[in-house]
Amino acid sequence: MVEDLLHSQPGILNFGIFFLLATVLLLVILGFVTYAILAERKVMGFMQLRQGPNQVGGRWGLLQTVADVLKLLLKEDTIPKLADKPLFIIAPVIAFAPSFIVIAAIPFTDKLQFADLNIGLLYYIAISGLTTIGMVTGGWASNNKYALLGGMRAAAQMISYEIPLVMSVLGVILLTGSLNLNDIVAAQENVWYILLQPVAFIVFIIASVAELNRVPFDLPESENELVAGFHVEYSGFRWAFFMLAEYVYMFAMASLTTVLFLGGWLPLFSFLDFIPGAVWFALKFMFVVFLLIWFRSTFPRIRADKLMEFAWKILLPIALANIFLTAIIKEIFKLL
Amino acid sequence: MTLSGEFFAFISLALVAVVGGVLLLNLTKVVHMVLALVFTFVSIAGIFILLSAEFLAAVQILIYSGAITIIMLFGIMLTRHDDTKEPKTGLLRKLLLFLGILGFAFAFYIGIYNLDFGEVSTTLHENNTEQIGIALYSKYIIPFELTSVLLLAALVGAIVLSKNDQEKEAKKE
Protein backbone atom coordinates (compact mmCIF):
# COMPACT_ATOMS: atom_id res chain seq x y z
CA MET A 1 0.00 0.00 0.00
CA VAL A 2 2.77 2.39 0.96
CA GLU A 3 4.64 1.49 -2.23
CA ASP A 4 1.68 2.65 -4.36
CA LEU A 5 1.38 5.84 -2.34
CA LEU A 6 5.05 6.65 -2.81
CA HIS A 7 4.72 6.48 -6.60
CA SER A 8 1.41 8.34 -6.92
CA GLN A 9 0.82 11.97 -7.90
CA PRO A 10 1.35 14.48 -5.10
CA GLY A 11 -1.65 16.28 -3.69
CA ILE A 12 -3.48 17.28 -0.58
CA LEU A 13 -5.02 13.80 -0.24
CA ASN A 14 -1.63 12.11 -0.42
CA PHE A 15 -0.18 14.47 2.11
CA GLY A 16 -3.17 13.82 4.37
CA ILE A 17 -2.71 10.04 4.17
CA PHE A 18 1.00 10.26 4.98
CA PHE A 19 0.31 12.67 7.80
CA LEU A 20 -2.39 10.38 9.22
CA LEU A 21 -0.12 7.31 9.02
CA ALA A 22 2.70 9.14 10.78
CA THR A 23 0.32 10.36 13.48
CA VAL A 24 -0.99 6.84 14.07
CA LEU A 25 2.57 5.54 14.33
CA LEU A 26 3.45 8.33 16.75
CA LEU A 27 0.45 7.46 18.92
CA VAL A 28 1.37 3.76 18.90
CA ILE A 29 4.90 4.63 19.95
CA LEU A 30 3.68 7.00 22.66
CA GLY A 31 1.54 4.13 23.93
CA PHE A 32 4.58 1.88 23.94
CA VAL A 33 6.68 4.48 25.77
CA THR A 34 3.97 4.94 28.40
CA TYR A 35 3.85 1.25 29.20
CA ALA A 36 7.58 0.68 28.73
CA ILE A 37 8.24 3.17 31.52
CA LEU A 38 5.64 1.47 33.70
CA ALA A 39 7.08 -1.97 32.87
CA GLU A 40 10.56 -0.74 33.67
CA ARG A 41 9.48 0.58 37.06
CA LYS A 42 7.47 -2.55 37.85
CA VAL A 43 10.16 -5.02 36.79
CA MET A 44 12.88 -3.09 38.57
CA GLY A 45 10.60 -2.92 41.61
CA PHE A 46 10.15 -6.68 41.71
CA MET A 47 13.86 -7.27 41.13
CA GLN A 48 14.65 -5.01 44.08
CA LEU A 49 12.01 -6.67 46.30
CA ARG A 50 9.53 -3.81 46.30
CA GLN A 51 6.18 -3.12 44.68
CA GLY A 52 6.76 -0.36 42.14
CA PRO A 53 3.86 1.94 41.20
CA ASN A 54 0.62 0.52 42.59
CA GLN A 55 -1.65 3.46 43.44
CA VAL A 56 -2.81 5.26 40.29
CA GLY A 57 -4.98 3.10 38.00
CA GLY A 58 -5.56 -0.05 39.97
CA ARG A 59 -3.27 -2.57 41.63
CA TRP A 60 -0.83 -2.56 38.69
CA GLY A 61 -0.47 1.20 38.54
CA LEU A 62 -1.68 1.24 34.95
CA LEU A 63 -2.26 5.00 34.84
CA GLN A 64 0.91 6.01 36.70
CA THR A 65 2.82 7.13 33.58
CA VAL A 66 -0.22 8.97 32.20
CA ALA A 67 -0.37 10.93 35.46
CA ASP A 68 3.37 11.61 35.25
CA VAL A 69 3.06 12.93 31.71
CA LEU A 70 0.15 15.19 32.72
CA LYS A 71 2.29 16.52 35.54
CA LEU A 72 5.13 17.23 33.08
CA LEU A 73 2.75 19.08 30.75
CA LEU A 74 1.53 21.31 33.56
CA LYS A 75 5.01 22.05 34.88
CA GLU A 76 6.51 25.49 34.43
CA ASP A 77 8.79 25.65 31.40
CA THR A 78 11.98 27.25 32.68
CA ILE A 79 14.82 28.55 30.53
CA PRO A 80 17.92 29.69 32.45
CA LYS A 81 18.68 33.39 32.09
CA LEU A 82 22.19 32.84 30.75
CA ALA A 83 21.27 29.93 28.49
CA ASP A 84 21.78 30.14 24.74
CA LYS A 85 18.07 30.50 24.04
CA PRO A 86 17.64 29.40 20.40
CA LEU A 87 19.88 26.37 20.90
CA PHE A 88 18.22 25.52 24.19
CA ILE A 89 14.86 25.40 22.43
CA ILE A 90 15.97 23.49 19.34
CA ALA A 91 18.11 20.86 21.12
CA PRO A 92 15.25 18.56 22.30
CA VAL A 93 13.82 18.66 18.77
CA ILE A 94 17.15 17.62 17.23
CA ALA A 95 17.45 14.84 19.80
CA PHE A 96 13.91 13.51 19.28
CA ALA A 97 13.31 13.83 15.52
CA PRO A 98 15.91 11.21 14.41
CA SER A 99 14.55 8.67 16.90
CA PHE A 100 11.17 8.85 15.20
CA ILE A 101 12.65 8.91 11.68
CA VAL A 102 14.55 5.63 12.13
CA ILE A 103 11.36 3.70 12.89
CA ALA A 104 10.16 4.26 9.31
CA ALA A 105 12.65 1.67 8.03
CA ILE A 106 11.98 -1.15 10.48
CA PRO A 107 9.89 -4.08 9.17
CA PHE A 108 7.51 -5.27 11.89
CA THR A 109 5.95 -8.02 9.78
CA ASP A 110 6.20 -8.83 6.07
CA LYS A 111 3.35 -6.41 5.37
CA LEU A 112 3.55 -3.88 8.20
CA GLN A 113 6.41 -1.63 7.18
CA PHE A 114 6.64 1.98 6.11
CA ALA A 115 9.69 2.13 3.85
CA ASP A 116 11.41 -0.89 2.34
CA LEU A 117 14.89 0.60 1.94
CA ASN A 118 17.75 -1.18 0.22
CA ILE A 119 20.10 0.25 2.81
CA GLY A 120 17.75 -0.11 5.80
CA LEU A 121 20.45 -1.11 8.27
CA LEU A 122 22.83 1.66 7.26
CA TYR A 123 19.94 4.13 7.37
CA TYR A 124 19.18 3.23 10.98
CA ILE A 125 22.78 3.58 12.12
CA ALA A 126 23.35 6.83 10.21
CA ILE A 127 20.22 8.62 11.38
CA SER A 128 20.51 7.50 14.99
CA GLY A 129 23.92 9.20 15.16
CA LEU A 130 22.24 12.58 14.71
CA THR A 131 20.76 12.44 18.21
CA THR A 132 24.21 12.98 19.72
CA ILE A 133 24.27 16.44 18.17
CA GLY A 134 21.04 17.27 19.99
CA MET A 135 22.50 16.09 23.28
CA VAL A 136 25.75 18.03 22.91
CA THR A 137 23.80 21.11 21.82
CA GLY A 138 21.48 20.82 24.82
CA GLY A 139 24.42 20.36 27.17
CA TRP A 140 26.21 23.35 25.70
CA ALA A 141 23.18 25.65 25.53
CA SER A 142 22.29 25.11 29.20
CA ASN A 143 25.41 27.06 30.23
CA ASN A 144 25.92 24.66 33.11
CA LYS A 145 29.12 22.72 33.74
CA TYR A 146 27.37 19.48 34.65
CA ALA A 147 25.27 19.71 31.52
CA LEU A 148 28.35 20.38 29.37
CA LEU A 149 30.23 17.45 30.94
CA GLY A 150 27.23 15.22 30.25
CA GLY A 151 27.07 16.41 26.64
CA MET A 152 30.82 15.78 26.16
CA ARG A 153 30.50 12.30 27.60
CA ALA A 154 27.51 11.60 25.35
CA ALA A 155 29.53 12.59 22.29
CA ALA A 156 32.59 10.55 23.23
CA GLN A 157 30.57 7.49 24.18
CA MET A 158 28.19 7.42 21.28
CA ILE A 159 30.87 7.93 18.65
CA SER A 160 33.11 5.23 20.17
CA TYR A 161 30.37 2.65 20.55
CA GLU A 162 28.95 3.26 17.10
CA ILE A 163 32.05 1.58 15.64
CA PRO A 164 31.73 -1.83 17.39
CA LEU A 165 27.99 -1.66 16.69
CA VAL A 166 28.54 -1.35 12.94
CA MET A 167 31.39 -3.88 12.97
CA SER A 168 29.33 -6.50 14.79
CA VAL A 169 26.50 -6.12 12.30
CA LEU A 170 28.91 -6.63 9.38
CA GLY A 171 28.96 -10.37 10.13
CA VAL A 172 25.21 -10.51 9.57
CA ILE A 173 25.55 -8.44 6.39
CA LEU A 174 28.25 -10.81 5.10
CA LEU A 175 26.03 -13.84 5.60
CA THR A 176 22.98 -12.19 4.05
CA GLY A 177 24.71 -10.29 1.28
CA SER A 178 22.32 -7.37 1.68
CA LEU A 179 21.67 -4.31 3.82
CA ASN A 180 17.92 -4.64 3.32
CA LEU A 181 16.22 -5.53 6.62
CA ASN A 182 13.56 -7.62 4.81
CA ASP A 183 16.28 -9.69 3.14
CA ILE A 184 18.02 -10.13 6.49
CA VAL A 185 14.84 -11.56 8.01
CA ALA A 186 14.22 -13.74 4.95
CA ALA A 187 17.74 -15.17 5.26
CA GLN A 188 16.91 -16.40 8.77
CA GLU A 189 14.22 -18.74 7.46
CA ASN A 190 16.08 -21.86 8.63
CA VAL A 191 18.31 -20.68 11.45
CA TRP A 192 18.41 -17.38 13.32
CA TYR A 193 21.55 -15.29 13.25
CA ILE A 194 21.84 -15.44 17.03
CA LEU A 195 22.98 -19.07 16.53
CA LEU A 196 25.21 -18.36 13.52
CA GLN A 197 26.68 -15.15 14.92
CA PRO A 198 26.70 -15.47 18.72
CA VAL A 199 29.79 -13.28 19.14
CA ALA A 200 28.29 -10.57 16.96
CA PHE A 201 25.10 -10.75 19.01
CA ILE A 202 26.92 -10.21 22.30
CA VAL A 203 29.00 -7.32 20.92
CA PHE A 204 25.86 -5.83 19.36
CA ILE A 205 23.87 -6.02 22.61
CA ILE A 206 26.67 -4.38 24.61
CA ALA A 207 27.21 -1.62 22.03
CA SER A 208 23.46 -1.04 21.68
CA VAL A 209 23.03 -0.60 25.44
CA ALA A 210 25.85 1.96 25.27
CA GLU A 211 24.16 3.70 22.32
CA LEU A 212 20.92 3.84 24.29
CA ASN A 213 22.71 5.53 27.21
CA ARG A 214 21.29 2.99 29.64
CA VAL A 215 22.87 1.46 32.73
CA PRO A 216 25.69 0.27 32.84
CA PHE A 217 26.65 2.87 30.21
CA ASP A 218 24.56 5.82 31.41
CA LEU A 219 27.54 8.11 31.98
CA PRO A 220 26.11 11.11 30.08
CA GLU A 221 23.33 11.37 32.64
CA SER A 222 24.74 9.56 35.67
CA GLU A 223 22.73 11.21 38.41
CA ASN A 224 25.18 10.73 41.25
CA GLU A 225 28.12 12.34 39.43
CA LEU A 226 26.58 14.92 37.11
CA VAL A 227 23.21 15.67 38.79
CA ALA A 228 21.36 14.64 35.61
CA GLY A 229 23.90 15.14 32.84
CA PHE A 230 23.05 17.02 29.69
CA HIS A 231 19.44 17.73 30.66
CA VAL A 232 20.01 19.26 34.13
CA GLU A 233 18.51 22.59 33.17
CA TYR A 234 15.57 21.21 31.24
CA SER A 235 12.13 20.96 32.81
CA GLY A 236 8.59 20.20 31.82
CA PHE A 237 7.90 19.26 28.26
CA ARG A 238 11.37 19.95 26.91
CA TRP A 239 12.78 17.43 29.38
CA ALA A 240 10.03 15.01 28.42
CA PHE A 241 11.27 15.20 24.83
CA PHE A 242 14.74 13.97 25.82
CA MET A 243 13.16 11.15 27.82
CA LEU A 244 10.84 10.35 24.93
CA ALA A 245 13.79 10.18 22.52
CA GLU A 246 15.51 7.74 24.85
CA TYR A 247 12.53 5.40 25.05
CA VAL A 248 11.73 5.63 21.34
CA TYR A 249 15.32 4.54 20.71
CA MET A 250 14.73 1.67 23.10
CA PHE A 251 11.74 0.70 20.94
CA ALA A 252 13.78 1.04 17.74
CA MET A 253 16.84 -0.78 19.06
CA ALA A 254 14.79 -3.67 20.45
CA SER A 255 13.04 -3.95 17.06
CA LEU A 256 16.38 -3.88 15.26
CA THR A 257 17.83 -6.58 17.53
CA THR A 258 14.76 -8.71 16.83
CA VAL A 259 15.10 -8.20 13.09
CA LEU A 260 18.85 -8.78 12.92
CA PHE A 261 19.39 -11.68 15.29
CA LEU A 262 16.06 -13.17 16.38
CA GLY A 263 14.45 -13.75 13.01
CA GLY A 264 12.01 -10.83 12.96
CA TRP A 265 8.46 -12.06 12.45
CA LEU A 266 9.46 -15.65 11.63
CA PRO A 267 8.13 -18.36 13.98
CA LEU A 268 10.37 -20.34 16.31
CA PHE A 269 9.62 -23.66 14.60
CA SER A 270 7.98 -24.00 11.21
CA PHE A 271 5.00 -26.00 12.61
CA LEU A 272 4.11 -22.95 14.73
CA ASP A 273 3.51 -20.71 11.74
CA PHE A 274 -0.29 -20.60 12.28
CA ILE A 275 0.49 -17.92 14.88
CA PRO A 276 0.61 -14.56 13.03
CA GLY A 277 3.95 -12.87 12.45
CA ALA A 278 3.01 -9.81 14.46
CA VAL A 279 2.62 -11.95 17.58
CA TRP A 280 6.04 -13.52 17.07
CA PHE A 281 7.60 -10.13 16.54
CA ALA A 282 5.91 -8.77 19.67
CA LEU A 283 7.10 -11.72 21.78
CA LYS A 284 10.74 -11.41 20.68
CA PHE A 285 10.58 -7.64 20.95
CA MET A 286 9.28 -7.86 24.52
CA PHE A 287 12.03 -10.32 25.40
CA VAL A 288 14.69 -7.83 24.24
CA VAL A 289 13.03 -4.97 26.14
CA PHE A 290 12.92 -7.16 29.25
CA LEU A 291 16.62 -7.92 28.78
CA LEU A 292 17.40 -4.19 28.68
CA ILE A 293 15.42 -3.58 31.89
CA TRP A 294 17.11 -6.57 33.51
CA PHE A 295 20.54 -5.10 32.69
CA ARG A 296 19.51 -1.83 34.21
CA SER A 297 18.59 -3.27 37.58
CA THR A 298 21.50 -5.70 37.91
CA PHE A 299 24.64 -4.00 36.59
CA PRO A 300 26.68 -1.26 38.29
CA ARG A 301 27.77 1.72 36.20
CA ILE A 302 31.06 1.34 34.36
CA ARG A 303 33.86 3.77 35.26
CA ALA A 304 34.41 6.67 32.86
CA ASP A 305 38.04 5.81 32.05
CA LYS A 306 37.26 2.11 31.55
CA LEU A 307 34.45 2.98 29.14
CA MET A 308 36.63 4.07 26.21
CA GLU A 309 39.18 1.32 26.79
CA PHE A 310 36.42 -1.26 26.74
CA ALA A 311 35.08 -0.02 23.41
CA TRP A 312 38.40 0.34 21.60
CA LYS A 313 40.54 -2.40 23.13
CA ILE A 314 38.02 -5.18 23.75
CA LEU A 315 34.83 -4.79 21.73
CA LEU A 316 36.40 -3.55 18.48
CA PRO A 317 39.06 -6.32 18.18
CA ILE A 318 36.43 -8.97 18.98
CA ALA A 319 34.10 -7.55 16.35
CA LEU A 320 36.91 -7.42 13.77
CA ALA A 321 37.94 -11.00 14.53
CA ASN A 322 34.31 -12.03 14.11
CA ILE A 323 34.16 -10.43 10.65
CA PHE A 324 37.38 -12.18 9.66
CA LEU A 325 36.14 -15.55 10.88
CA THR A 326 32.76 -15.12 9.22
CA ALA A 327 34.37 -14.26 5.89
CA ILE A 328 36.65 -17.33 6.05
CA ILE A 329 33.81 -19.68 7.01
CA LYS A 330 31.60 -18.28 4.26
CA GLU A 331 34.34 -18.88 1.65
CA ILE A 332 34.94 -22.44 2.91
CA PHE A 333 31.22 -23.23 2.65
CA LYS A 334 31.20 -21.82 -0.86
CA LEU A 335 34.02 -24.19 -1.89
CA LEU A 336 32.28 -27.28 -0.49
CA MET B 1 8.10 22.14 -15.46
CA THR B 2 5.47 20.10 -13.67
CA LEU B 3 4.82 20.47 -9.98
CA SER B 4 5.73 17.00 -8.79
CA GLY B 5 6.52 15.82 -5.27
CA GLU B 6 10.14 15.53 -6.32
CA PHE B 7 10.17 19.20 -7.24
CA PHE B 8 8.76 20.24 -3.86
CA ALA B 9 11.22 18.00 -2.06
CA PHE B 10 14.14 19.35 -4.06
CA ILE B 11 13.18 22.99 -3.53
CA SER B 12 12.75 22.59 0.21
CA LEU B 13 15.97 20.60 0.62
CA ALA B 14 17.94 23.01 -1.54
CA LEU B 15 16.52 25.95 0.40
CA VAL B 16 17.54 24.41 3.72
CA ALA B 17 21.00 23.62 2.35
CA VAL B 18 21.57 27.15 1.05
CA VAL B 19 20.12 28.83 4.14
CA GLY B 20 22.30 26.59 6.32
CA GLY B 21 25.36 27.63 4.33
CA VAL B 22 24.53 31.33 4.55
CA LEU B 23 23.85 31.07 8.28
CA LEU B 24 27.16 29.26 8.73
CA LEU B 25 28.91 32.34 7.33
CA ASN B 26 26.82 34.96 9.07
CA LEU B 27 26.28 33.66 12.60
CA THR B 28 28.76 34.79 15.20
CA LYS B 29 28.81 31.98 17.76
CA VAL B 30 30.77 28.83 16.97
CA VAL B 31 28.16 26.32 18.15
CA HIS B 32 25.43 28.08 16.14
CA MET B 33 27.59 27.83 13.01
CA VAL B 34 28.18 24.13 13.54
CA LEU B 35 24.45 23.56 13.90
CA ALA B 36 23.84 25.44 10.63
CA LEU B 37 26.37 23.06 9.06
CA VAL B 38 24.30 20.10 10.29
CA PHE B 39 21.26 21.37 8.38
CA THR B 40 23.32 21.81 5.21
CA PHE B 41 24.79 18.31 5.37
CA VAL B 42 21.50 16.61 6.16
CA SER B 43 19.67 18.34 3.33
CA ILE B 44 22.48 17.46 0.91
CA ALA B 45 21.95 13.85 1.99
CA GLY B 46 18.28 14.35 1.16
CA ILE B 47 19.24 15.57 -2.33
CA PHE B 48 21.34 12.42 -2.78
CA ILE B 49 18.23 10.39 -1.99
CA LEU B 50 16.28 12.32 -4.64
CA LEU B 51 19.01 11.30 -7.09
CA SER B 52 18.51 7.63 -5.99
CA ALA B 53 22.02 7.58 -4.51
CA GLU B 54 20.77 6.19 -1.22
CA PHE B 55 24.09 4.64 -0.19
CA LEU B 56 25.86 7.98 -0.59
CA ALA B 57 23.12 9.68 1.43
CA ALA B 58 23.42 7.25 4.34
CA VAL B 59 27.20 7.46 4.32
CA GLN B 60 27.04 11.25 4.16
CA ILE B 61 24.96 11.34 7.35
CA LEU B 62 26.94 8.54 9.02
CA ILE B 63 30.29 10.27 8.51
CA TYR B 64 29.23 13.85 9.04
CA SER B 65 27.04 13.37 12.12
CA GLY B 66 30.09 12.06 13.97
CA ALA B 67 32.43 14.59 12.38
CA ILE B 68 30.15 17.52 13.20
CA THR B 69 29.90 16.45 16.83
CA ILE B 70 33.69 16.44 16.99
CA ILE B 71 33.87 19.86 15.29
CA MET B 72 31.39 21.12 17.87
CA LEU B 73 33.55 19.82 20.72
CA PHE B 74 36.62 21.45 19.16
CA GLY B 75 34.63 24.64 18.79
CA ILE B 76 33.69 24.53 22.45
CA MET B 77 37.11 23.55 23.77
CA LEU B 78 39.60 25.29 21.50
CA THR B 79 38.05 28.65 20.65
CA ARG B 80 37.06 31.72 22.59
CA HIS B 81 33.38 31.10 22.08
CA ASP B 82 32.17 34.20 23.92
CA ASP B 83 34.10 36.39 21.49
CA THR B 84 31.52 37.80 19.06
CA LYS B 85 33.48 40.74 17.68
CA GLU B 86 33.53 41.00 13.90
CA PRO B 87 36.95 41.56 12.40
CA LYS B 88 37.07 44.82 10.45
CA THR B 89 37.61 44.56 6.71
CA GLY B 90 38.38 47.33 4.27
CA LEU B 91 36.17 48.39 1.37
CA LEU B 92 38.74 47.33 -1.21
CA ARG B 93 38.86 43.83 0.20
CA LYS B 94 35.08 43.55 0.16
CA LEU B 95 35.00 44.72 -3.46
CA LEU B 96 37.65 42.22 -4.50
CA LEU B 97 35.78 39.48 -2.68
CA PHE B 98 32.57 40.41 -4.47
CA LEU B 99 34.34 40.31 -7.85
CA GLY B 100 35.83 36.94 -6.94
CA ILE B 101 32.39 35.57 -6.09
CA LEU B 102 30.94 36.91 -9.35
CA GLY B 103 33.79 35.30 -11.31
CA PHE B 104 33.27 32.00 -9.53
CA ALA B 105 29.52 32.07 -10.16
CA PHE B 106 30.07 32.90 -13.84
CA ALA B 107 32.64 30.14 -14.31
CA PHE B 108 30.30 27.64 -12.67
CA TYR B 109 27.34 28.79 -14.75
CA ILE B 110 29.30 28.32 -17.98
CA GLY B 111 30.62 24.98 -16.80
CA ILE B 112 27.24 23.56 -15.80
CA TYR B 113 25.28 25.04 -18.72
CA ASN B 114 27.29 23.24 -21.35
CA LEU B 115 27.96 20.13 -19.34
CA ASP B 116 27.47 16.90 -21.24
CA PHE B 117 28.02 13.57 -19.54
CA GLY B 118 27.66 11.68 -22.78
CA GLU B 119 26.02 8.28 -22.56
CA VAL B 120 24.76 7.77 -19.00
CA SER B 121 23.85 4.22 -18.11
CA THR B 122 20.32 3.99 -16.74
CA THR B 123 20.89 1.18 -14.27
CA LEU B 124 23.16 3.06 -11.88
CA HIS B 125 20.48 3.47 -9.24
CA GLU B 126 19.69 -0.25 -8.96
CA ASN B 127 21.53 -1.91 -6.08
CA ASN B 128 23.93 0.99 -5.93
CA THR B 129 25.56 -0.31 -2.73
CA GLU B 130 26.63 -3.45 -4.57
CA GLN B 131 27.75 -1.51 -7.64
CA ILE B 132 29.85 0.87 -5.56
CA GLY B 133 31.38 -2.10 -3.73
CA ILE B 134 32.28 -3.91 -6.94
CA ALA B 135 33.75 -0.75 -8.49
CA LEU B 136 35.79 0.04 -5.36
CA TYR B 137 37.25 -3.44 -5.00
CA SER B 138 37.98 -4.14 -8.64
CA LYS B 139 38.50 -1.03 -10.75
CA TYR B 140 39.67 1.41 -8.07
CA ILE B 141 41.40 -0.98 -5.69
CA ILE B 142 44.74 0.88 -5.61
CA PRO B 143 43.35 4.34 -4.81
CA PHE B 144 41.13 2.69 -2.21
CA GLU B 145 44.07 0.95 -0.54
CA LEU B 146 46.14 4.15 -0.67
CA THR B 147 43.34 6.02 1.10
CA SER B 148 43.20 3.41 3.82
CA VAL B 149 46.98 3.59 4.29
CA LEU B 150 46.67 7.38 4.58
CA LEU B 151 43.95 7.05 7.20
CA LEU B 152 45.99 4.47 9.09
CA ALA B 153 48.99 6.82 9.10
CA ALA B 154 46.80 9.60 10.51
CA LEU B 155 45.48 7.22 13.18
CA VAL B 156 48.98 6.12 14.22
CA GLY B 157 50.11 9.75 14.20
CA ALA B 158 47.30 10.74 16.56
CA ILE B 159 48.19 7.87 18.91
CA VAL B 160 51.90 8.84 18.90
CA LEU B 161 51.10 12.50 19.62
CA SER B 162 48.78 11.74 22.52
CA LYS B 163 51.18 9.11 23.91
CA ASN B 164 54.01 11.69 24.11
CA ASP B 165 51.80 14.04 26.09
CA GLN B 166 50.99 11.39 28.64
CA GLU B 167 54.65 10.50 29.19
CA LYS B 168 55.61 14.15 29.70
CA GLU B 169 52.82 14.64 32.21
CA ALA B 170 53.91 11.51 34.06
CA LYS B 171 57.46 12.88 34.28
CA LYS B 172 56.22 16.21 35.60
CA GLU B 173 54.32 14.52 38.36
UniProtKB/TrEMBL annotation, chain A:
<comment type="similarity">
    <text>Belongs to the complex I subunit 1 family.</text>
</comment>
<feature type="transmembrane region" description="Helical">
    <location>
        <begin position="307"/>
        <end position="329"/>
    </location>
</feature>
<dbReference type="GO" id="GO:0016655">
    <property type="term" value="F:oxidoreductase activity, acting on NAD(P)H, quinone or similar compound as acceptor"/>
</dbReference>
<dbReference type="Pfam" id="PF00146">
    <property type="entry name" value="NADHdh"/>
</dbReference>
<protein>
    <recommendedName>
        <fullName>NADH-quinone oxidoreductase subunit H</fullName>
        <ecNumber>7.1.1.-</ecNumber>
    </recommendedName>
</protein>
<keyword id="KW-1133">Transmembrane helix</keyword>
<dbReference type="GO" id="GO:0009060">
    <property type="term" value="P:aerobic respiration"/>
</dbReference>
<keyword id="KW-0520">NAD</keyword>
<feature type="transmembrane region" description="Helical">
    <location>
        <begin position="247"/>
        <end position="268"/>
    </location>
</feature>
<feature type="transmembrane region" description="Helical">
    <location>
        <begin position="87"/>
        <end position="109"/>
    </location>
</feature>
<comment type="subunit">
    <text>NDH-1 is composed of 14 different subunits. Subunits NuoA, H, J, K, L, M, N constitute the membrane sector of the complex.</text>
</comment>
<dbReference type="GO" id="GO:0048038">
    <property type="term" value="F:quinone binding"/>
</dbReference>
<dbReference type="GO" id="GO:0003954">
    <property type="term" value="F:NADH dehydrogenase activity"/>
</dbReference>
<keyword id="KW-0560">Oxidoreductase</keyword>
<feature type="transmembrane region" description="Helical">
    <location>
        <begin position="121"/>
        <end position="141"/>
    </location>
</feature>
<dbReference type="GO" id="GO:0005886">
    <property type="term" value="C:plasma membrane"/>
</dbReference>
<dbReference type="InterPro" id="IPR018086">
    <property type="entry name" value="NADH_UbQ_OxRdtase_su1_CS"/>
</dbReference>
<keyword id="KW-0812">Transmembrane</keyword>
<keyword id="KW-0874">Quinone</keyword>
<keyword id="KW-0472">Membrane</keyword>
<dbReference type="InterPro" id="IPR001694">
    <property type="entry name" value="NADH_UbQ_OxRdtase_su1/FPO"/>
</dbReference>
<keyword id="KW-1003">Cell membrane</keyword>
TrEMBL record, chain B:
<comment type="function">
    <text>NDH-1 shuttles electrons from NADH, via FMN and iron-sulfur (Fe-S) centers, to quinones in the respiratory chain. Couples the redox reaction to proton translocation (for every two electrons transferred, four hydrogen ions are translocated across the cytoplasmic membrane), and thus conserves the redox energy in a proton gradient.</text>
</comment>
<dbReference type="GO" id="GO:0008137">
    <property type="term" value="F:NADH dehydrogenase (ubiquinone) activity"/>
</dbReference>
<protein>
    <recommendedName>
        <fullName>NADH-quinone oxidoreductase subunit J</fullName>
        <ecNumber>7.1.1.-</ecNumber>
    </recommendedName>
</protein>
<dbReference type="InterPro" id="IPR001457">
    <property type="entry name" value="NADH_UbQ/plastoQ_OxRdtase_su6"/>
</dbReference>
<dbReference type="GO" id="GO:0005886">
    <property type="term" value="C:plasma membrane"/>
</dbReference>
<keyword id="KW-0874">Quinone</keyword>
<keyword id="KW-0812">Transmembrane</keyword>
<feature type="transmembrane region" description="Helical">
    <location>
        <begin position="140"/>
        <end position="162"/>
    </location>
</feature>
<feature type="transmembrane region" description="Helical">
    <location>
        <begin position="57"/>
        <end position="79"/>
    </location>
</feature>
<comment type="similarity">
    <text>Belongs to the complex I subunit 6 family.</text>
</comment>
<keyword id="KW-1003">Cell membrane</keyword>
<keyword id="KW-0472">Membrane</keyword>
<keyword id="KW-0830">Ubiquinone</keyword>
<keyword id="KW-0520">NAD</keyword>
<dbReference type="GO" id="GO:0048038">
    <property type="term" value="F:quinone binding"/>
</dbReference>
<dbReference type="Pfam" id="PF00499">
    <property type="entry name" value="Oxidored_q3"/>
</dbReference>
<keyword id="KW-1133">Transmembrane helix</keyword>
<feature type="transmembrane region" description="Helical">
    <location>
        <begin position="6"/>
        <end position="27"/>
    </location>
</feature>
<feature type="transmembrane region" description="Helical">
    <location>
        <begin position="34"/>
        <end position="51"/>
    </location>
</feature>
<dbReference type="InterPro" id="IPR042106">
    <property type="entry name" value="Nuo/plastoQ_OxRdtase_6_NuoJ"/>
</dbReference>
<feature type="transmembrane region" description="Helical">
    <location>
        <begin position="91"/>
        <end position="112"/>
    </location>
</feature>
